[in-house]
Amino acid sequence: MNCCRNTFLILLLGAVAVARLYAHAFVDHAEPAVGSKVKQIPLEVRLWFTEPVEPVLSSIRVFDAKGRQIDKKDAHPDAKNKALLRVSLPLLTPGTYRVVWRAVSMDTHVTNGDFTFRTIP
Prior knowledge:
Blueprint: H1 2-21, E1 27-31, E2 37-38, E3 44-49, E4 59-63, E5 76-77, E6 84-88, E7 95-104, E8 110-119
Parallel strand pairs: 2-8
Antiparallel strand pairs: 1-3, 3-6, 4-7, 5-6, 7-8
C-alpha cells in the first residue's frame, strides 16, 4: 500500500513538473479591460499575466487610431507583483486605442497579443 502511494506521488510531481515546463505567460486580465468602453480616462494600462514575466524582455505599447505610439514608453513591472506590467498614458481623448503586448515568462517562453479599448465622452 505504501509503495502505491509513493508511486502515485512521484507520478503527480512529475506531471506538475512537466506542466510547469510548458507554461506560458498569457494576459489574465487588463485595465482598461479588453474590448471595453471607458468613460474615466485611464492614466495607465495594467496587464496581469498568468505567471511572472521577465520585465526586461516583456513590453506593453499603446497606439492611437492612426497607429502612433502614444504611451510614455515607461513599461515596468509592479514592485510587488511580478505578473503585473504597467505603462503610463498621456491624457487621452475620446477614441479607440490598441494595446500590443509581449511577455517572456521566467522559463523564456514568449507570448504576444493585442487588444483594443475605447474612451468615450
